[in-house]
Fold these 3 entries.
Entry 1:
Amino acid sequence: MDPIAIYFTGTAGAGKTTITRAFHDWMEESGYDALTVNLDPGMEEPGYEANIDIRDWVKLSEIQSEHGLGPNGAQIAASDVIALKIYEVREELERLNGDYVLIDTPGQVELFAFRESSRAIVEALTGERSLIAFLFDPALAKSPGGFVSLLLLSATVQFRFGLPLINVLSKADLLRPEDRQRVQQWGEEPFALYEAVGDESPGRDTGLSLELFRALESIGPLWQPLFTSAESHTGLEDLYATAQKVFSGGEDLEKSGGTNAPD
Ligand SMILES: Nc1nc2c(ncn2[C@@H]2O[C@H](COP(=O)(O)OP(=O)(O)OP(=O)(O)O)[C@@H](O)[C@H]2O)c(=O)[nH]1
Ligand SMILES: [Mg+2]
C-alpha cells in the first residue's frame, strides 16, 4: 500500500519545518515508520537532515544566480523544475519505503498552493493518500480577524488541491491560556467568532456577513484547528490519529517491526 503522506503548509514562519521534524521524532519514538521530505528548495538550515531533500535536485540559490531572479521568482521557477524531476524523487521515496511520509513545503503558502505544478507534484509524489496539514500561526490566529483570514486561506488551499485537509494550530505553547480558550471557543461556536470580529473593529464594516460564517461552518472539519506544539509534542498523537482516521477509517497501521495492514 502507498504510504500516508502529510504535507505541512501554512504562512511563512508558521512552523512547518519544526513540526515536520518534531512529528517525525514523535512517530519514531512511538514505533512508527516515517520518512521526511524537504520540498523547500530555499531552505537554509544546514542542521536539518530530511530523508529526501529536494535541494539534491534543485537549489534556490543556483536558480537565483543563473536566471537573475529574486527569492520569490526563483521559488516559482524552482517549482516548475521540481515538477520535471518529481518521478526521480518518487523513485527514491519508493526505495526508502516508509509507512508515513512527512513533507515540509516552501515558506510562502501561495508559492505552494497557487502553482499548477504543485498539484502535479503532490499527485506524482504521493497520489491519493495525501493529506494537507494547514498550520495556523498563533500570532495571527489569536485575533478574530487573523483567525478568519486563516480559515479563508485554508479553505482556498483545500479548494486548490482537492485533498483532505486539517487545520493545525502550531506553537500552541506560545498561546496564553486565555487566548487559547478564546481560539478554542471560536472553533466550536462560529457565532462567537462572528461577534468577536465585530468587537475587534467597532464601527468598521468588515464586510464579513453571517452568510460567510455559515458557509465556513458548513465546510465542517475545516473549522476546528487541532492544537499542537513541536516544543512539547502536545497534540502530535491527535494529529496522527486524525491522519489515520482520514485514510483508514480509524484503523491503525501496525507499528514498525510488524506487518502492514492489508490493502
Ligand atoms: N515555542 C515554539 N516555537 C516554535 C514551534 N514551532 C516552531 N517554532 C519556532 O517558530 C519559528 C519558525 O519555525 P519554522 O519551523 O522555521 O517555520 P517554517 O514555517 O518552516 O518557516 P519558513 O519555512 O521560513 O516559512 C522558529 O523560530 C521556530 O523555533 C513550537 O511548537 N513552539
Ligand atoms: Mg521552513
Note: DSSP finds eleven helices and seven strands in the chain.
Entry 2:
Amino acid sequence: MTNPVSHAIELVDIRKAYGDVVAVDGVSLAIAHGEFFSLLGPSGCGKTTTLRVIAGFATLDAGDVRLGGVSTTHVPPHRRDVNTVFQQYALFPHMTVEENVGFGLRVRKASRSDIRAAVGDALDMVRLHGCEGRRPTELSGGQQQRVALARALVNRPSVLLLDEPLAALDLKLRQEMRDELKRLQREVGITFVYVTHDQDEAMALSDRMAVMNGGRVEQVGPGPDVYEHPSNRFVADFIGATNFVPVQVLSVDAGVALTQTVGVGAARLRAQARVHLAPGERSTLSVRPEHVRLVPRSEPTGDANGLAGTVADRTYLGATVEYRVRVGDEAELVVVEPTGGGSGQVQPGADVSVLWSVGDSWLLSD
Ligand SMILES: Nc1ncnc2c1ncn2[C@@H]1O[C@H](COP(=O)(O)OP(=O)(O)OP(=O)(O)O)[C@@H](O)[C@H]1O
Ligand SMILES: [Mg+2]
C-alpha cells in the first residue's frame, strides 16, 4: 500500500562503502512526489552511488530507502517503480528507435498493440516522431539522448533517476535538452532525481537541490536559497563565484555582526551572521562578485561597508566586465558589473573603494 501523504523517496541515514572508501556517509533526504530534485557536487562526492542505492543496484551498509513510504530493503531493482537514464545511455546499436524504446515492454511480454501505443506516446513526449525506423548511428547526440529518455519513460515509472544525462552533449544542445527536460518533467509529473556537477544545470532545472561533498549532504534547498544563503564555505565556493574575506568577530547584534578584517588591511565590516558566532571568533565573510561595486577612491563612501583596493585587472566578457581588485597585500576581490553600467571607466592601476550592502554579505562557518 502506498501512503498518500508519503514522499516519493526518503533516504534515511544511508551509508555505502566500497572497501575502505565511504562513498555515501549518512545521507538523509525526503523528495516529494513530482519534484525535480538535483544531486549536485564535485566528482567522487557520491552522487552516482546515491542513485544506485535508490535504484537498488547497490546494497546499503546502513539506513533505509523508502519509495512511496515503503521500505525497499527487500525489494529487488526490477520490482522498484524506478527507471534510470545513465550517462552512457547505451542504446542497442542493432535496433531501431522503435525497437530500442519498446525493448522493456517486449521483455515483459506486453501485447504488440500495447507496445505500439506506448512507444508512440513516449516518442511524442520526447518529440521524436518520424525517427522510428532509424538506428542510433543515424541520430544526432541529442536525438540519441531523447531515445534513452523515451526508453525510460515508456514504462511510466513514478521515479526517474538521471545520471548526468546531458554530459555527452555540446553546450548548445545541452541547453536545448535542458529546456526539453524541464518541459517533459512538468508534463508527465514524474519525480526526477537528477545528478549533475554543473551548478547552472541544477539551478535551471531543479525545484530543490542537495549539494554533496565527500559522501555527505552539505545543504538542501531551492536553487535561489542555496545561492543567496550558502550555509558554509564549501557551498558558497561550489555554487557560483564568491569572494572570501577572513575576519574576526567583534560583536553580534540582531543577526548582524561587526567584524574586523584579518590580513587585508584593518577595516571594520558588517555582515549577516546566520551561524552562531561569539566575539573573538574567526570567520569568513562571503560576498558575491555581482553584489560588489567599485567607486573611485576620491569619492566619499560615507559609512558604506567595504575595502580600499587597487584594480589589478579588467576583463571584458561581453555582457559583463570582471575586475580583479587587490586589497591588502595578498587578497584579491572579484567584481562583476554589467557592461556599460556601473564603473565602466575604471582602468587597471586605479585606486578604488570596493563597496557592498551589509545584507549581501554573510559570515560562513568553515
Ligand atoms: N564500484 C566501486 N568500487 C570502489 N569504489 C567506488 C565504486 N564506485 C564508486 N566508488 C568510489 O566511491 C566514491 C563516490 O563515487 P560516485 O561514483 O558515487 O561519485 P560521483 O559523485 O558520481 O562522481 P562523478 O561526478 O565523477 O561521477 C568515489 O570515491 C569512488 O571512487
Ligand atoms: Mg557519477
Note: The chain has two domains: 9-234, 241-358.
Entry 3:
Amino acid sequence: MPTDALFRDAPYERSCEAVVMGADTDGVVLDRTVFYATSGGQPGDSGRLSLADGTIFDVIDTVKGDNGKIIHKLAEGVPIPAVGATLHAEINWERRHRHMRMHTCLHLLTAVIKAPITGAQLTDEKGRIDFNLPEMTMDKAEIQARLSELITDDHPVVANWISEAELDARPDLIKTMSIRPPVGAGQIRLIDIDEIDLQPCGGTHVARTGEIGNVTVRKIESKGKQNRRISVVFADD
Ligand SMILES: [Zn+2]
C-alpha cells in the first residue's frame, strides 16, 4: 500500500497521527505522513516519531521506497517502533519551511531565465539551478532585480491537478529536461504562480512569493559549454 503523502495537498501541516505499516533497520513506513521524501532536488524531511508513552524515534531523512511507500530513516543502531503502533509524526518545521521558501524561489528563477532546466538542488540555506543556455544575456544584478520584484509583489502560488493526457497535449509545460514530472494514477500536479510560472512539480511550496523573503543571487557559473548554473542564498537569516 502506498503511503498517503499529506504534504502534497497540505504543505503547512507539521504533524499527523499515523500507524506503523513496516519497520526495520532500513526505516519506518507509515500509513500516512507529513514527511516529504527526497526528490526533485528538494531534501527529505527530518523530525521525530513519538509514541504515547513518550518514546521518541528521531528521523534523520525521508526517502521514497517501492510502490509509493515513503521511508522514514532512523539513525543507525537505535530501536525501531513495532508494526501496528500508532504514533505522532512531526517534522522539523523550521528546516522544511526554509526548503519551501527556497524551492518556490527556484520556480521564480526559472521564470526570470527562460531556458530549459537540466538540474536543480536546494538546502535550507541555498539553492541552484542549471540551465541549458549557451549564452547568458543577463548579468547578476539584472537577475537579482527581477527575482526580488517577483518576491516583493507577493504573488499567490497554487496547485492544480491535471491528467497525464492533458500534460501530453501541452509539452510546453515541461521545463525540466532530465526529470520526468511526478506521475501516478494518471494525475499530475501543476504548480501555478500567478501565470508567472506554470510547471508540473511534486515539491512543497509556500502559499505566496512574499513568504520567500530576501534572497541574494550569489553567482553565475559556466558548467560546460551549454550549462549555466545560477546560485542563490537566503540573504538575512
Ligand atoms: Zn516545485
Note: The first strand starts at residue 4 and ends at 5.
